[in-house]
What we know:
The complex is a heterodimer. By secondary structure, chain A is an alpha+beta fold. Chain A is built from 14 helices and 31 strands. Chain A has a domain of 180 residues. In chain A, strands 1, 2, 3, 4, 5, 6, 7, 8, 9, 10, 11 and 12 form a 12-stranded mixed β-sheet that branches. In chain A, strands 24-23-22-21-17-14-13-25 form an 8-stranded parallel β-sheet. The longest helix of chain A has 17 residues. The N and C termini of chain A lie far apart (70 Å). Chain B is an alpha+beta fold. In chain B, helix 1 crosses helix 4. Chain B has a 9-stranded antiparallel β-sheet with strand order 3-5-7-6-11-12-10-9-8, with helices on both faces. Chain B is 26% helix and 22% strand. Chain B has one domain: HIT family, subunit A (2-Layer Sandwich), CATH 3.30.428.10. The chains are: A alpha+beta, B alpha+beta. Chains A and B meet through helix 4, strand 27 and strand 31 of A and strand 3, helix 1, helix 2 and helix 4 of B. Strand 31 of chain A pairs antiparallel with strand 3 of chain B.
Amino acid sequence: MSTFFANINELNEFxxxxxxxxxIVEGGEILVRVERIHLGYLFRTFVKGVIQDVVLFEFxxxxxxxxxxxxxxxxxxxxxxxxxFSFPIELRKKFGYSASIMPEVYFDNLISDYFMxxxxxxxxxxxxxxxxxxLLIDPETVKVKLNLFGRHFADWTEVEKFVVLKxxxxxxxxxxxxxxxxxxxxxxxxxNFVGWSSWYQYFLDFDYQKMMADLDKSKCLGYQVFQxxxxxxxxxxxxEPNEKFPALTRIASDIRSYGxxxxxxLAPFSVSETSSISKNHSDWxxxxxxxxxxxxxxxxxxxxxxLDTTNPEAKEWxxxxxxxxxxxGFGYFKIDFLFAGAIQGKRHDNCTPVEAYIQGLKIIRExxxxxxxxxxxxxxxxxxxxxxxxxxxxDTAPFWDPNGPDIGYPNAYYALRNVFTRWFMNGVxxxxxxxxxxxxxxxxxLNDSQRQLYAFTSLLLDNILVQSDNLSYKIDHDLWKxxxxxxxxxxxxxxxxxxxxxxxxxxxxxxxxxxxxxxKDLKIPTFRIELDEERVKLVKKIEKRSDGRTFNYYEEREKxx
Amino acid sequence: xxxxxxxxxxxxxxIVSAFTQQRPTNPTAECPLxxxxxxxxxxxxxxxxxxxxxxxxxxxxxxxxDDELYAKERAQGKCEVVVYTIExxxxxxxxxxxxxxxxxxxxxxxxLELSTLPFVKYVFxxxxxxxxxxxxxxxxxxxxxxxxxxxxxxxxKLTAQxxxxxxxxxxxxxxVVKREIRNGERIVYENESFIALVPFYARWxxxxxxxxxxxxxxxxxxxxxxxxxxxxxxxxxxxxYDLLFQQAFPYMMMLFQAPVNDIRYWHAFHxxxxxxxxxxxxxxxxxxASVETGTWAFINPKIPEEAARELRAVEVLK
Lengths: 561, 318
């Protein structure tokens, strides 16, 4: 069977169905079936034997392409043929697997994880439950690949499905996201929320007194969640309060006394070299070929190892950790640096890194029940169905630097760029976390325009809204009030045009009307917000009757002048 | 008993609901939707509330079934009564446009709110007007069903429109709107954002469809000016109906919006409203009888272009 498409823009059935059939690959066999679906074709792949990293099919590369990185922080961007892809050598060790599940390929090649688009088509995997689907891109061709990491399949097994879709990229993306959601059985039970986080104000310099001071200042701001971030723990892996905080039950009850869901940050698959787990349970860590703990990445000036989420004792520890946090009173979990759970290496179980990661996530999900789980630094497609919210860009920052490196470093500009380019995942796969809104007017380099654009983009795309400011500072309360007024109307239906040329046009429809945001140049930024003025203002009042029925009353607030 | 059962012969779900048997038929005592009636003790403007006799419930009983031949599932969903106004003697044709505009906003809110329930797959908003179509109360109201599955006719619409999109690369109804505006023969009423017409494929004698000129998949995507223009359109259509035979014209009005918790059809499915009236003349009814019910094939005794001409000729104050 031939696997090369000369022109993916002009696919016909003959071209496509020729790619179906049986193949022998190194170590095993592959069978590909192709089915016609609305807007394109579905490729189903079955494998048997020991399967490594296989090419399913390849096609001629279009000039401008939309490429995506495997995890939360990585870039999702449009690149041209002249895009010089080489990851900075001096940062490779520090980033490690943060940059890619396959750093050995990623650092010297252009790859797009899970999906890739161009102006008139989209190719994407519907899941990543066993293998890692990606596209390897060179100046002339694109190879659609599935890395199964040498896993042994004793019997014929169906692995990740791919779709090839034709149409305008702006409406193919939401269509594709829904196919992915259906394939993974997503049912979004949780609601997106409004909250506060400590990170972008205090970073590691956070303590109980600051927490209480901001809680006191937070009344009437409309938060639903109040979350403490990194800085409360003894070490990465030792998830107990350090000397700056009281017991976890106290932290949670203090937050709850203000009417908020208490939220807590942790990096459950990361283990620092100085932690007690590293010292006492090195058998719980993912190992290299020589049996030594593998460095997943470097941070906090330390080597960080990865928890082996297939090790029975480590699994029990993980389950107990989250059960205890939930028992302590927390109802919102921001779980960070999750990619560590999916690094390549030797584990207790002989499975792919993706399967190991999913085992870990499943334990957390089961332990916390209906509590809100926010994934961060997370492999995107393997997390689908396990998280309620997902960070979909780099960390934001109190500065805007379009000339900084686009490698997942903190930067409000790149963080917001991903909020646009990954918009279609929101409300379908999970609730997008655009990262925090920094609304302070001091201790920041962000100007009014940048602050306003970040806030309105997050609002109109119907994302999670979390503020991260010292509430004693001068805050742009007027902006927050405008945001919260529109948010009070509830769920929105969103569309975005202009992904390929970067002139984004958001259409955001809700009960209050159809608002628009038009970005001419994100770098400066120049943009226009068009709010649809209400002709009729209705106030809704909900009454629960004693027979269990709900009555939704709608009454006019003021007659149109 | 409350459950849904799968018909393996047709691939459709049937809701078995013993509650609906208790529903009153044109109660002769006081109206339950008026103040002082069974449902309201205080004055109100508009209200959408849980039906006392629901066919679908959020807390529907669990159903256990592993029978492949006779599959059944929970009848989980919602049935609401949507009250348009406190005025008992009113109707859409008699209500101020402003009140219809409020109603549209309430519909949008119900659609969005019910779409936050992950098990809801389709929100069907409708009105049965007149005893000839089974309305049990004369007080102006409609209903909505939040279904846990895609009903069969909706599925047919989605499939046909998706197929058209695959074959032509654009929305079928967008093409219909362009053709009808160019042709004009079947148009009953038109404004900047909507056309009301007797469709080329009308199944009922005086069937009227309302199509937005712009592609939107639901009422939520209409901006505030368009919602106002839709209010005017609904008012004009229902006034024309009432004036056609100088009587309260019985109809079924149905809003067809894209499924919820599923955005795969946003690009291909064009929001529209169907009025299915049962009158074929002043004193004659077209019944949904064996052919229509058994085969879903309709025989329309009225030429759509003639019906459009008659309805167009009915003068109303716009």
